[in-house]
Amino acid sequence: MSEEALSVTETRESVVDSLAKGKFKRVRRILRELTATEVVELLNQLDPEQQQLVWNQIGDEEEQGILTELDPALAERLLTNSDDHPDTLEPEAEDDEDVSPITQVREALEAGRFKRALKILGKLHPSQAAGLLEALPPAERSSIWSRLDSARAGQILVHLREEVRASLALEMSDSELLDAAHQLDLDDLVDLIQALPFGPGRQLLLSMDVKTRQQLADMLSYPEESAGGLMNIDHISVRADVRVSSILRYLRLLEDLPDHTDKLMVVDRENRYLGVLRLSRLVTSPADGLVSDVMDGDFKALDVLMSSQEVQRQFEDLDMLSAAVTSPDGILLGRITVDDVMDSIREDSERAIMGMAGLDDEADMFAPVLTSTRRRSVWLGCNLITAFLAASVIGQFQGALEQIVALAVLMPVVASMGGIAGSQTLTLVIRGLALGQVDTGNLKVLLVKELGIGTLNGLLWAVLVAVVAFLWFGSLGIGWVIGLAILINLVCAVLAGLLIPLILRRFGIDPALAGSMVLMAVTDVVGFSSFLGLATVFLL
Amino acid sequence: MSEEALSVTETRESVVDSLAKGKFKRVRRILRELTATEVVELLNQLDPEQQQLVWNQIGDEEEQGILTELDPALAERLLTNSDDHPDTLEPEAEDDEDVSPITQVREALEAGRFKRALKILGKLHPSQAAGLLEALPPAERSSIWSRLDSARAGQILVHLREEVRASLALEMSDSELLDAAHQLDLDDLVDLIQALPFGPGRQLLLSMDVKTRQQLADMLSYPEESAGGLMNIDHISVRADVRVSSILRYLRLLEDLPDHTDKLMVVDRENRYLGVLRLSRLVTSPADGLVSDVMDGDFKALDVLMSSQEVQRQFEDLDMLSAAVTSPDGILLGRITVDDVMDSIREDSERAIMGMAGLDDEADMFAPVLTSTRRRSVWLGCNLITAFLAASVIGQFQGALEQIVALAVLMPVVASMGGIAGSQTLTLVIRGLALGQVDTGNLKVLLVKELGIGTLNGLLWAVLVAVVAFLWFGSLGIGWVIGLAILINLVCAVLAGLLIPLILRRFGIDPALAGSMVLMAVTDVVGFSSFLGLATVFLL
């Protein structure tokens, strides 16, 4: 739909039509094209109800200009009934602190009070606003999203999870998206383009000016999970043979430095990285010194292809606020700041926890039911395979089960104790591997220790469970068999908990994701077969 | 044992005795008391083997002084056979990159090459060295620890997990510990004191000078998991009515600023917090301006009692590098820097993942087997209760199990599918609660959505499992019953996954810790009882 200049009548008809259909976004688009005088003219041609609806679509900035030209009586009526007018708020909204922002926004949206909803959102930091939007059902999310101005939308986009980000970005018109994108730092822009489907992403890329496009293309060429994917190019670089006083003069000309500038990068004539000049050093240095005298020449740069895990570890170990990123031949490419590293740590930890349940941390909590069902069914399918594996093991011992029904009653106890004991070792080893604290150098010591724990806990619980089983079913044989089975399963579980992550890693599979399911298969199979097998041998 | 000045003969006897007993630490302590000349005198009285052993105990710094006074032939022999001499390294040690530091250190220790082991450790950053120490079995850990000088030991202590930290600190003599403690920042010192048992911790506190002790006592009064527990007091504060040029002059006098200083704190005459002056702003401001003109007055301080989770969120949301901490009445108390926040995020994420398996993230990976067994048995005991709960449910249906053995074979499938489906919802809700994205405001929407997913996945897998069960056992009845049971269990599991974390939180229990075990109890009970119950009704 092209938004050509419409005549007054056409405008009025178009607005009335849109109001009737509830297309408020279209109304706002029309209003944006009009001068204050034209809006007043339009308002005067509408009935009171339509007037109020139109009024609620007018932004805070435009309100003042229109009010001055409006009939005072009408102005007062509109203001009094406006959806963000204090008088129209229900009394309970006053104890705002007890009501969460989610509830507040949803109540406002339900009552059609868009201005009020926007105001609540406006009070939040963009990342908090992003969190709030994610917590809204998709329809409400879109409804409030379409009312945000582009600058704010851009700031919020950066902080959204990938799936929500892509879907909201696609709801924007090309020009809105472009406006929003222009508010972003290059690294955030890279993230946005990567989150979009190929077509719109490419279009956004092409709409940038040549220089930005070149820089974006460079940055897009690095893997997301690498130093290149985390870096930004807003650093300030200086030469080593310059005086401190000149640097200070130069900085004063800039008036403001890029966010998170704690150090300047020192380079040579070919832009080769030489070291850093800390601001804290700069302000304490004599003005007539040379940069080369006060710079830190031994502050290591990060290679652009370093993995993001390694970047995280470097930042944590060396307590860095920012670090230079260089190409393999030492050319300064950009810098990584600690805020992005912190986000990356948080994302990885979320991914790990969600991944253990077979969930995607970047997914929309309110994705359509069918989409979510399909995603989750994958993990259920994997589990079904291991469940049938366990069932087939039990199936081997139908004879024993037919004769002694107590076996069927007790067998889940054996399997579940093994599962818990194994998952403890598994968790310990997965963390050890991630931190580099478990490797061939100390594997044997760990193995001995874990086997010791498995055996001791095995003995402890074997005795206890044996006693309970004996008391329950009055059979000494069942007590012996279940005790022995628990001991066997706990020792095997500990062994499996230690070996499974090592084996999975050898095959390039993340043990944090698949480890617990594989472990469960092992402990089920060992638990059922040892218990039912021993029973077959000794009790039949 | 008091280390009074000993005569030459006494010294020699004492050294020979200690060497024979393998008490190298004692040898080093004796050596430290001697001048270079006395060491040479001592060496000359020993046999070649003893000479070499003593030599290996001498620190790098003292070596040079002793070498000049030593008989050249003896000096050369000692150096050639020294345990860090390149010639004595096995050839494969050259491809250091393939061999992990853990292996390298352990091999060196095993061969008695302590100097070499110390050198490997010396190349690492303190936090990496701490990680390496944690990865060593306790005996080797102590052996290398006793050889570290106090300064280095202090830096490493900070980065150790609590349990390892406390045990290594207790291995040090009082004076060594005090030496090490003097290297630490106040916030690290607070952590160390908190990690020690009450007695030694108090002793360490009392050994500080009056001012430090007062500051420590203040900081110890805040909960560990609060802004007060994360803060340090090394900030620089300035007054608002001073000129920028004076600040620059003042900073130049300091020569170096505290680590991670990206901003100065602006206070009034009563030390009340007014705002911050960023270094990046300072270096770009005209020198004749006032601090009040260039400071950020709207940069919020954190309340000293704010929870560490909230501090993390603020740092992440507002991308801060440091923030002021104030008392409730606005007095500046200290500042929190992003490196400590990052550590706190990492620790919380580790605690969450370890906690899910009932493990303590601060525990020593190589704690004595009995200690570890006792700790882990708690979780196994909790699990045993739920396992017997499930068993008792099965026990209700012994009649059905006796008649149809296929029920015993298939029942774990029903329970485990419910467990997986429930854990997906549980994980989603726990994350949502932690991020504030799930609350009463959107609970109903989420409930409807999750029930939808549970029903759809329930139908999908019910059909599949029913078909498999029918093909396996040739009974249409069993197919119907297991299908229905799976549908029921998946819907209940989703409901439980949603409600359990909410209920646990209401009772003040962390849902991340106890959630999955409670869920498992529910899905087992519902799974077994629905499957066996339906079978009893329809198949008997």
From TrEMBL, chains A, B:
Segments for region (Disordered): 81-100
UniProt feature, compositional bias: Acidic residues: 89-99
Membrane topology annotation: Multi-pass membrane protein
Protein name per the record: Magnesium transporter MgtE
SMART domains in alphabetical order: MgtE_N
One Pfam assignment: MgtE
Function: Acts as a magnesium transporter.
GO cellular component, one term: plasma membrane
Annotated signal sequence range: none
Cited PROSITE patterns: CBS
Record's subcellular location: Cell membrane; Membrane
Stated family: Belongs to the SLC41A transporter family.
Keywords for this protein: CBS domain, Cell membrane, Magnesium, Membrane, Metal-binding, Transmembrane, Transmembrane helix, Transport
PANTHER family cross-referenced by the UniProt entry: MAGNESIUM TRANSPORTER MGTE
Organism placement in taxonomy: Bacteria, Pseudomonadati, Pseudomonadota, Gammaproteobacteria, Pseudomonadales
Single GO MF descriptor: magnesium ion transmembrane transporter activity
Oligomer status and interactors: Homodimer.
SUPFAM superfamilies reported for this sequence: CBS-domain pair, MgtE membrane domain-like, MgtE N-terminal domain-like
InterPro entries attached to this UniProt entry: CBS_dom (IPR000644), CBS_dom_sf (IPR046342), Mg_transptr_MgtE_intracell_dom (IPR006668), MgtE_N_sf (IPR038076), MgtE_transporter (IPR006669), SLC41_membr_dom (IPR006667), SLC41_membr_dom_sf (IPR036739)
Domain CBS positions: 231-294
Segments traversing the membrane: 378-398, 404-430, 451-472, 478-504, 516-539
